[in-house]
Amino acid sequence: MKNGYARHTSFHVAVDCIIFGYDGIHLKILLVKRSFEPEKGKWSLVGGFLKDEESLDDAAERVLFELTGLSDLYLEQLYAYGDVQRDSGGRVISVAYFTLINTEVFNGLSSTKYGGKWHDIHEVPDLIFDHGTMVTKALRRLRRRAKTQPIGFELLPEKFTIPQLLNLYEAIYDREFDKRNFRKKILTLNVLEKLTEKDMKNSRKGAFYYKFNLDKYNQLIINGFVFDILSN
Amino acid sequence: MKNGYARHTSFHVAVDCIIFGYDGIHLKILLVKRSFEPEKGKWSLVGGFLKDEESLDDAAERVLFELTGLSDLYLEQLYAYGDVQRDSGGRVISVAYFTLINTEVFNGLSSTKYGGKWHDIHEVPDLIFDHGTMVTKALRRLRRRAKTQPIGFELLPEKFTIPQLLNLYEAIYDREFDKRNFRKKILTLNVLEKLTEKDMKNSRKGAFYYKFNLDKYNQLIINGFVFDILSN
DNA sequence: CCAAAAGTGTTCAGCTTACACCCATGA
DNA sequence: TCATGGGTGTAAGCTGAACACTTTTGG
Description:
Structural class of chain A: alpha+beta
Order of helices and strands of chain A: EEEEHEEHEHEHHEEH
CATH class of the largest domain in chain A: Alpha Beta
Number of helices of chain A: 6
Low-confidence stretches of chain A: none
Shape of chain A: elongated
Oligomer: homodimer
Number of domains of chain A: 2
CATH architecture of the largest domain in chain A: Alpha-Beta Complex
Radius of gyration of chain A: 20 Å
CATH topology of the largest domain in chain A: Nucleoside Triphosphate Pyrophosphohydrolase
Largest sheet of chain A: 7 strands, mixed
């Protein structure tokens, strides 16, 4: 494509991804050791430079695919970072994205070939540049989303039990919820489908599996519905 | 600054600003007729290219200052747009910002020397590129913000009456609110300071002026408070 | 039969909503 | 004195929050 704006300065543009995962107990993020200078060897978000013929979203998808082999993940743009001195290797505009990886896939990835490592959200090491800021913002965004959208389901396997879902919400918000109120609230939403099968791994009695019914959810959204778990 | 990333592609980066204003009756946005090709003469958001030694925020501030002569405006980053074909003049990554201009200043600007023109939010003309999408997103963001932050005050003069504030909220949300409940809710927040002076312009009885008390507001924020006007 | 997690209902408080009349003033 | 917008209070319904015991089953 010819570019009529050639007299203006050009900039390197990158994407950085905050990858949230859930191992069934704790909320985690996936970090890598940076493989090139500057700051080589330090912990970093997964990132990469934008290429000619790809959109920002494409770039984020590509970067995620290169690291994890996964596509079709939940992917949401977080914020664009553009401070002049934010990257000590040169001027780079970075657009941060966040994504969610569910437990099953998560376990397959526990040791990724690219040196990715999962870190508990409470034990995030010092990160290069402004990546720490990005993580903080991503966590806030995740909490906001989980309040009003069924985003939490992205972090769970297709079939999950109510206690598992409760546990996930407790991990995301780092607090406890009353299980009776939680169950009541989530079930009144009418977006969960109870299966006949039980999970017998976590208790003697067993807990019924549920799955998320996207059709019902979309129906609610169309009718101007707000999905509001929480408060209690 | 030397740049160790030189082997990667560079891109033009721009900022575009959605400028909301309030004339005392309607919610408006400020648009300009584009002064260069392509799409010269069409309605457009105010924008400009990012320069070497400025951050994205700096660029947005500069663009706003160049158009309006104003600085220290409320300014919030909205979203980064990066589709390959979004700009027919060449590949440009655009970071959108939105800002709010209060009535008094607004009136001084009704006819800006740069050909800016205020458009009622209900009568936004076709805009170039993806600017229409940006406006839609900005309006959603404004509505979200106005719910939980005292952002609406940015659109009013320093002294304002409760009926004026009500009117503004009705303009933002494009619906009516019950004036008794609105007054009750806003006053229980304890962030408004009643003045002894009355506005006699809009009624015979006159309406008391209030002003926003930022100290009280900050105090509430620190204590984990959520500013929630609305619902009714 | 016991340990351990799953599952279930009710009550109270506070907030949201709906709603109608009097007040002050300038013309 | 009257027209106009400003200002006020209350009752009903709903939602959120707190809270304790029974059920199931494998070991």
